[in-house]
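Office hours follow-up: a student asked to see two folded examples consecutively, so here they are.
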Amino acid sequence: MTDAATGAGRISEVFARSAAERRAALIGYLPAGFPTVDGAIEAARAMAAGGADLIEIGLPYSDPLMDGPVIQEAVHQALTRGAHVTDVLRTVTAVAETGVPALVMTYWNPIDHYGVESFAADLAAAGGSGLITPDLTPEEAGPWLGAAAKHDLDPVFLVAPSSSDERIALITSACRGFVYAASVMGITGARQSVGAAAAGLVARVRQHTDLPVAVGLGVSTGVQAAEVAGFADGVIVGSAFVRCLLDAGDDRSAGLAAISALTADLAAGVRAASR
């Protein structure tokens, strides 16, 4: 069982603190093992230092159906270098040690292969606070929900603009911590504008749950973060962070500087949209 200081309650505390500050929470994503295991840890720590409230650590997977080309390339490089679940857990520990709660975002097959109970126990032992599973449906999530409850981990599921009200009710009933609202239909990636359906989706979700609603898919600037923070409880940014490291190539210092600058811009954005 994980300690209360690093368990699922940490996520609720983050959203409660952000709400008290009349702002949205900033949630950043990076895949473990990219550009290296240690490089990902350094980048995640820079993100934490720059103002991220929660950090998602991606588990590299060979068939990332939801991910766009930026994250696909990073994950490919991580897998080529031999990234493993143990590296994900090590990265989670490094993030949790900063005081920022860490979640793992992963497709379900690697967890099923690892063993649901074993993964839940190891994630909790690593200091993780929860798991985001984009391709796991609530109907098939029984074993995971049981393991998550046993080890005090928050299960986070996704809703989309195409989700019916009945579907949203089912999905949100299985969530803890927050609900992940995909702002657009399609793969991940930074966009020039956030999906127009995002605000409507958040409003629909709030009809079925009191959990915080965080919006992801497309945010890449402080201006966009402020826009989303005006109607959502959390702003999720992934591809833009990964792009910082891809563009830097082998220049580790440049990559970390870019991560820090982007985090600061996004953190200012969520604070600019005070509510």
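And the second, which I mentioned at the end of office hours:
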Amino acid sequence: MTYKSITLRRGKEESLMRFHPWVFSGAIAQVQDDIEEGDLVTVYAHDGQLLGNGHFQIGSIAVRMLTFDDTPIDEGFYADRLLQAYRVRQALNLMRNDNNAFRLVHGEGDFLPGLVIDIYGHTAVLQAHSPGMHFARNIIAQALTQLPQGLVRNVYYKSETTLPYKAQLDPQNEYIIGQFDTDIAMENGMRFHVDWLKGQKTGFFVDQRENRSLLERYAEGRRVLNMFCYTGGFSFYALRGGARSVHSVDSSTKAIRLTDENVALNFDNEHRHQSFAEDAFKFLDNITPGDYDLMILDPPAFAKHKSALKNALVGYRRLNAKAFEKIAPGGILFTFSCSQAVNKEQFRLAVFSAAAQSRRRVRILHQLTQPADHPVNIYHPEGEYLKGLVLQVE
């Protein structure tokens, strides 16, 4: 099989020799004349050495590498990579009677850059982050239905907001295979509604599964405030953990409605829970210091690109400073950043600065990250996007 060709500048092959899966536009010396967005390409060093195959796109990241040899990118390639990803999740024991929600493919971490697949019951929600994966969506969907134990029956394609707008692909969110059967999935015995049709990301944040379980162990007898609650994941784990009260806050009335539905799905007539559709900073400003002794700060990404880094760090400092000001003595704070542009050290420094501003004694109890079904390719450290700290505040 012959692909379009790209030749790199002298010395720019070094990152590919170290298996980094991105080729930046500035590294390219020559591009085949008739190349188009999403084409399969073979990348060569300046001396003609074949470096591998990948997907071409217009932008800063010009090629996302799928192989570092001449392996063809065909139906067999996708079937093999998906099966490998499945076996990893099987080894992690994520497919159980009390758990049927997890990430099956995490882009570069599963050696399929530009592709994300989350599983909810028998439905796979497929997101393309590159034109190449968009064009391969039907092949990928068919391969998903061939996974063992009939794992996937329905494949929903949800890429309207994830593909580069300059590609002008006009993707449609739709079922590629199967149809809607249920929107209820299960995580560690907790049931929840998943809105993959109109919700954020693929409909639920499966990357916080293990961190929610950790919070459950701290919840007993505590007054819990779950900021940026989205559909209430941390809230219903806190309730199961024996929290005295749980307040869920999100600026989206739709998210609050889903939170209330999820609480009702797991608990009958739950009087301990209240929800508020309100801006997070406004809500924090209006509470009395000491009202809560367990807080969760899990905001949406403050920085999606490096250009927003400075403002993002100001936002994290401001948000955490407000939490340190309000949390009760002896309280526990779960605080997170999902901004890929913010690294661990920068996030920790922002939280440190907020703690110093409060002049309170603060201990780090846990340093958190994404779970094992969101693996990080060792050659692509940029894939470590979720950072979290669990702090005890005197």
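Two things to take away from it. The CA atoms of residues 160 and 171 lie 5 Å apart. Residues 205-393 form a domain with the Rossmann fold fold (CATH 3.40.50.150).
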